[in-house]
Input
Amino acid sequence: MADHKSLGLSSELHDYLVAHGTAPDAVQRELIAVTKEKIGPMSLMQVAPEQGAFMTLFTKLVGAKNAVEVGTFTGYSALCIARGLPDDGKLLCCDVSDDYTKIGLPYWEKAGVAHKIELKIAPALDTLKALPKTRHIDLSFIDADKTNYANYYEELVARTRPGGVILVDNVLWGGAVVDATRSDESTLAIRAFNDAVASDGRVECVMLPISDGLTVLRVKG
Output
């Protein structure tokens, strides 16, 4: 399929795109700024503003009440998901870094969503395996170490309700997924994961060119 409508975004076009969606508010802008200030170039690991807006809206559209995040970093994506949950909704955040996640804690409080979020500092696989083996999760977001994507996915898909959704970040991996010269462990893991979920009969999926690639998987009944 040679013909396509995808469009590379210049900085100017990206600014236009963000400006014509729900833009980050003051709390989100402050979290973006403090992440860049404290972490520097690694702040690029934070989800893009338009992806955050999409995740808030999508959480509302799904009607999610119970959500899980694997890989919280400084808490921007968690803030976005939590804002899409009802007031009695719950988001379980799984991460191994207290240093990064504690940056986001004051902003969850400022945004009025801290009561919806439970942060678990431990290997995510251990946290997921300890969850009830019932299909109780409405929405989850995977954005952590790429070599464990398949493992996180398996634990989550078995616990996601029919019609529930799993979002997976970085599935284009900066273009490395189609770069034959790239054979590092993370790239190979992302390719294998993408191939596996595209043919997984338990889900329906679409890969979207949002930021570094976002796969949306709907779990079948």
Notes: Residues 11-219 form a domain with the Rossmann fold fold (CATH 3.40.50.150). The chain has a mean pLDDT of 95.
